[in-house]
Amino acid sequence: MLIIDEQMNISMTRGDCVDIQINIVDANGAPYDYSGDQQMTFSVRKEYAEPPVMDEPAPDLEITIPLNTGILSILMANTIGMDSGDYYYDIYLIKANGYVDTFINNKRFTLMPEAHGWS
Fold first, then answer.
1. Which distant-in-sequence residues (6+ apart) come within 8 Å of 64 by Cβ?
2. Measured distance CA(95)–CA(88) in Å, rounded
3. pLDDT tens sequence across 16-32
């Protein structure tokens, strides 16, 4: 099960596989130009530090989103080892020159328990 609400909070069943289309537009509503050396990343943490702490532990989940498709694919292996509950996610773009643009920030990512009990 996958639910994305109006505020872009994500709820999904732990262990499920989901594909989410990520579309970026510029200030004029035109599709973002993905050409060049760039990387888009989906990052999930149990605790959200504000402001970010440079020596905080690695994210609980981090997935590179292919720019040619813009599809965030979350696989069973990505969430099956995580505890059910609330997390927080960001999606950010890193350009070749090191410029970072976090375009979705501090949104809730909820892993709901599965009834069938993966082991």
1. 39, 40, 41, 42
2. 23
3. 999 999 988 888 989 88
